[in-house]
Amino acid sequence: GVPHSPLHLADLRSAAREALASLSERGPVSADDLAGLVAEVVDAHLPSLPRWSWYHQAWPMLDWKLLVFLWRTAGGLAVLVLAATIVPGPLHGYSGRMLRWSVLGITYLLVSVDLAIYVAIRLFIRAIEAIFATRRHRALRRELRKAKSYREWFVM
Fold first, then answer.
1. Contact 85, 96 (CB under 8 A)
2. Theoretical Cys-Cys bridge with 84: which of 12, 33, 78, 95, CB 3.0 to 4.6 Å?
3. DSSP 8-state class, residue 60
4. Band of the pLDDT at 74, cuts 50, 70, 90?
């Protein structure tokens, strides 16, 4: 089933209300108590998902998601390499070279992915415009392409 179906969310809400009511009977609720409560209710009622399942659910912030993915998979190694880069010593040169090439590689990868997504979106829009454009729109676009200056283009 779908993990966030309306019925499932209703169950989650009612469980959260019950837990909050029992917690508030003891007195004022602190931020730590509330955070613990939320974690407890979510862990108990939401299905466990693989660590990477967030990756394919929302891609609009793809660059950020890739960085989070890298942190989740190699976070300890990244901290070790950064520490070796900052702290002077025999590992300073090696870690600097490793960090330089990995950052350069990740940068080129992200720029390439962004470019590929941009091109795919532009081609998709072009195809949709070709399918749904009327004769009048096609004629107007031809005239706009023939314009030699912004002033000519703007007059149309």
1. yes
2. 95
3. T
4. confident
